[in-house]
Target: LacI family DNA-binding transcriptional regulator
Amino acid sequence: MTDDVTRGWQRPSIYDVARQAGVSHMTVSRVLNGHPNIRESTRERVLQAIDEMNYTRSSIARALATRRAMRIGVLVDGPVQYGPNSTLRALESAARDVGYAVSAFTISDDEESQIDTGVVELVTQGVDALCVIAPRASSLDILRKQTTGLPTIVIKAEPDAAWHTVAVDQRAGATLAVSHLIELGHRHILHVAGPLDWYDARERQEGWSDALTAAGLPVVPSVAGDWTSDYGYEFGSSFELDDVTAIFVANDQMALGVIHGLSDRGIRVPDDISVVGFDDLPDARHFLPPLTTVRQDFAALGELALRQIIAAIDGEEDGMRHDRIEPRLIVRSSTRAPRA
Model:
């Protein structure tokens, strides 16, 4: 009876192969990915370990970037948030329509080091390309150090010299929200931002600031939140508003908390203060009051990202592209002209 049968056979992982070959898991990944800067003796040692451990040749073939596995690897930063989750589902739907599968690796807010593990796992699965959804600046700093040889698309609100990028135009969305408030007559508009390590949060903050500056209105320091309704409630129930007559909140979840916190203080929305959110959650129209917000077309974003991914796989892209989708302002009952 073999040891495999005695202990119950498990498919060997890339880490098992690395231990057997006496190298790092990243070296194994580079061998699987056909990386040129690997010594031949090291490559042979890794391939020998693969053979000895029955790490199947089909897995290796699928992991080579030059072969077609009809699979896209997706790194999702902050998967519990509405935007990243909706983008992933949209990408999966678009991929299915053209015969591609999606393998996702999620990264929690406090686990930036998981990016390294995620890239290795996805490459080992034999993906044809990588897509990164909703990255934080710190996440991309880690990713820049990776060498996979795979086409990589980043869902990112601003261009990047290293990758193809696609995004809903976050800055334009913020401009729509603030311009709406200005047109209603508001002159002191506060911003509750998302975590400023997130590119989307930065773009929304800059759009708010630029719109106020263009209108000749004061730009007071924004408040950085954490995307959650709990933070919005804490802010709404305690922050001194002074002359503020309107608040642009960086996402609908925080906006819900803000409205709740203001209500507990006896401050009425929109009679005493107007509130605008961002995302257009499915329930935003049922908030009390129904929320004015910025809608992102995640289905269109998923289709656009997939088109770029397939073009990159096919070698049809020359240079780095940045494509954007325009958002829409959805006006509901949480905004009105300020009281005289």
